[in-house]
Specification:
mainly alpha, about 70 residues
């Protein structure tokens, strides 16, 4: 889904996969499994930071207010 584009942007190996193509999901899982613990932890930290700054209740509320208070 396009909502994940900014969340997953620049992360290697890529995390996004094609809907209806189970092989792409499997490829992503294998690629993540092949990473070291430190690399997986770094990806997790990046994702947590992005969710916190881009997808929190506060950022959602701010976006709604920007739409309403134009």
């Amino acid at each position: 889904h396009v909502a994940f584009d900014t969340l997953f942007d620049g992360i290697e190996p890529p995390l996004a996969f094609e809907r209806g193509r189970p092989a792409t999901v499997a490829d992503r899982i294998v690629a993540l499994a092949e990473l070291g613990d430190d690399e997986r932890q770094a990806i997790g930290e990046t994702l947590r930071e992005r969710v916190s700054t881009q997808h929190s209740v506060e950022t959602w509320a701010d976006a709604i207010l920007r739409l309403v208070v134009r």
